[in-house]
Write a structure and sequence with these properties.
Number of strands: 9
Structural class: alpha/beta
Shape: globular
CATH superfamily: SPOUT methyltransferase, trefoil knot domain
Length: 188
């Protein structure tokens, strides 16, 4: 069946800098770079989550170009990574797709740059991922992060990546760091 870990890049519902709930625009860099991380670490799939029809069409066009179009011939390794990408209109839709594939409820894990009372550390989540019969969907927020409602409705909230005071990574960087911490080789 493959990896039990899936990624969700959430474009709605997320906050803007005024903490208003908005939908953000999809970026080409996010699609390519996160898909490459997903392939590198053997993730089961990568969902781009947006309710905006124009953004759905844009993402699907980009994916089609690299998976079926001239891009698939020009860069076959890009085809491999972009083949992992799906577009969903809601978090629940992505959740249902993974749950249906696995025949069991998916465990949602929210991420964010701020501490949360429900936070679990990377080591704890790494141990949870050892249960190969349970699928996990890690949600990453764009804009100014996932809404409080998304975090509260998740099964877990992953502790933030701690830097040296500055805490505003691109979502692409956060995905790479988190995947390495969860799935990368560990020297004991």
């Amino acid at each position: 069946m493959g990896s039990n870990l899936y990624l969700g890049l959430v474009h709605h519902p997320i906050y803007d800098k005024r903490r208003e709930v908005v939908a953000t625009a999809i970026t080409n860099f996010d699609i390519h770079d996160i898909a490459r991380c997903a392939k590198t670490f053997g993730v089961g799939g990568f969902f781009i989550i947006t309710p905006l029809e124009s953004q759905v069409q844009l993402a699907e066009r980009i994916i089609r170009h690299w998976v079926e179009g001239i891009g698939s011939v020009y860069n076959p390794t890009r085809k491999e990574s972009l083949s992992l990408v799906r577009v969903s209109r809601t978090i629940d839709e992505a959740d249902r797709e993974v749950s249906d594939l696995w025949g069991t409820k998916v465990k949602r894990v929210a991420t964010g740059a701020s501490p949360h009372p429900k936070s679990i550390d990377f080591g704890f989540l790494r141990k949870l991922l050892n249960d190969e019969n349970t699928p996990f969907l890690i949600l990453f927020g764009t804009g100014w992060g996932l809404t409080q409602e998304v975090k509260e409705s998740s099964d877990y909230v992953l502790a933030p990546i701690e830097g040296k005071g500055y805490n505003h990574l691109s979502v692409r960087s956060a995905v790479a760091i988190i995947l390495d911490r969860l799935l990368g080789d560990r020297i004991v």
